[in-house]
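Schema walkthrough. Field components (list of strings):
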Amino acid sequence: MARKKRKTVMADAAVPISAMIDVVFLLIIFFVVTASIDKEVEDEVVILAKAPHGKPMEKKDPRSFIVNIRKEGKTFIAGIEYPMSKITEMLTASAAKWGKEMPIVIRADQNVQHEYVKRVMEAVTNTGLYRVKFNAVVED
Amino acid sequence: MSRKKRKFDVKDAEVPLSAMIDVVFLLLIYFIVSQKPIVEDTLLGMDLPAPGGKPKSDKPMTMLTIDVAKLAKNSDDVYHVNGQPFFFNDLKNFLKQTAENDKDTTIIVNCDPNAKHKKLIRLLDTCQEYGMTKLNLVNDESIKFVPDK
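Field assembly_structure (string):
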């Protein structure tokens, strides 16, 4: 009897690593897959201006060309900083691919000077595109 | 011997719930805490200056020119409508009245290159509130751009 008891205690003390690891990996994979899609396009440093009367965006156009403008005027696309000449090139390439109706979304920081926004808009009009929208946040 | 084996099998089949729940709750708490609050986005649109500088329609239209000036300490809230200074609240009332008379009034927005972007967004938001959609943005080349330090 004494031997038997010892053995059962040992069995209880074993850590069930395989089941735990299964759950942990499953959760991690789920969160990684769901979380990192939009973050690449949207610059976290940019603080958008508030527009309490704007209509909440229901659906994003998948063709949208998103340009982020930081407070100091630097332009970022998909997390990488580009000079204006490169942005013009990219706009031209995208316009050739998606057509002139392609929407351009300007995500400018609320405190950026208008000149930097103007430069992006000039690049847009020079490319022949015209659907420009400013991204803002609906908040009270 | 056969009895012993059976007993071990039963012990092995037990699910170690406590450890698993520990891990699951830890992960859940981590992800909940690190999650961004959901912010509703909006898109405000306007017509850009055409490359040729020609107006888009030939119809006679009522026009309003609003200058968005640089935010200064003493004129924080001031916009100029057809040359006259308006505080933001007065501008709101004025736009409301204009929208009641004619929603199709074309508004030409002339933005100072030194003005903060939020000042322009606030104007666009107010126009959106009163349903005025004919907005044209023009560039004021007469004002010199001085970058912030």
